Amino acid sequence: MDEELTRDYAALLDRARGTVLPVGDGAGDEIHAAGAGGAPLATRRVKFLHFWGHTSRGEGVDKACLSQWWPAPFTVGAATYATAEHWMMAHKARLFGDVAAENAVLTAPGPAQAKVAGRLVQGFDEATWERERFRIVVEGSVHKFCADPALSAFLLDTGDRVLVEASPLDLIWGIGLAADDPRASRPASWRGQNLLGFALMAARDILGGEG
After folding, report:
1. pLDDT above 60 (res 87)
2. Tell me: the pLDDT tens digits for 151-199?
3. Residue 210 — very low, low, confident or very high, per pLDDT cuts 50/70/90?
4. Cβ distance 67 to 52 under 8 Å?
5. Beta-strand pair 46-51/162-165
6. β-bridge mates for residue 164, sequence order
7. Same domain membership, residue 81 and residue 66
8. C-alpha pair distances (Å), 8 with each of 4, 11, 163, 205, 210
9. Is residue 152 situated within a structural domain?
10. For 97, what's the count of Cα atoms within 13 Å in the CB-facing half-sphere?
11. 84 assigned to some structural domain
12. Measured distance CA(4)–CA(205) in Å, rounded
């Protein structure tokens, strides 16, 4: 897990691993921490907001906006990024000095194409990327949500919920589980790292003046 996750949310997750019990029948999205023998460690209940996919279910902004693929263009310096995915992949290319790949990402017509271009970065080093990727996504998320008041309002309105990318396919940025899987509200049972969820929470702290 990335070093940057050793913040409040990482502490929450570390405490939860192996010590989290579901509230009631486990069908809801709340948990409480419990120690040996089920003795409570804290009375604060934690609520989750599960998201996955970038297509809104209606008009306006909903939790689909949390996706890296949500169409939310923003400009930083001389570059415009069509989505947060474009930001991440462009900065991946920039990290390794691949100008051609960076240009390919920036001109990609959609996030899927930007992702493909980002996977072709020359000089890629896994250890370097693992060290830098979380910071890059946090910064991109701050720019994305700052650029649109409606998006910023939605993110801040999530309050202190734990944001969870409930992708059954992604073990790095998501939890490797679907939202309707009972384990999705039990951090100790997550198959993935949920880095996107943690990055969004870090961005939320920054936008809310806590970062």
Report:
1. yes
2. 999 999 999 999 999 999 999 999 999 999 999 999 989 999 999 999 9
3. low
4. yes
5. parallel
6. 50
7. no
8. 10, 5, 14, 11, 11
9. no
10. 2
11. yes
12. 14
Question: Which residue in 46, 45, 133 sits closest to 89, CA to CA?
Answer: 133
**Under 8 Å between Cβ of 100 and 90:** no
- Residue with structure tokens 């194409």? 113
What is the pLDDT confidence band of residue 28, given thresholds at 50, 70 and 90? very low
Average confidence score pLDDT of the chain = 83
pLDDT tens digits, one per residue of 122-160: 999 999 999 999 999 999 999 999 999 999 999 999 999
More confident residue, 79 or 46: 79
**Residue that finishes a domain, picked among 120, 147, 174:** 147
Number of domains within the chain? 2
Dihedral in degrees, nearest 10, Cα atoms 46, 69, 94, 1:
30
User: In terms of domains, do 66 and 95 share one?
Assistant: no
Three-state SS annotation for the chain: CCHHHCCHHHHHHHHHCCCEEECCCCCCCEEEEECHHHCECCCCCEEEEEECCCCCCCCCCCHHHHCCCCCCCEEECCEEECCHHHHHHHHHHHHCCCHHHHHHHHCCCCHHHHHHHHCCCCCCCHHHHHHHHHHHHHHHHHHHHHCCHHHHHHHHHCCCCEEEECCCCCCCCCCCCCCCCHHHHCHHHCCCCCHHHHHHHHHHHHHCCCC
Token digits of residue 123: 């000089």
Q: Is residue 8 located within the same domain as residue 67?
A: yes
**Model pTM score:** 0.80
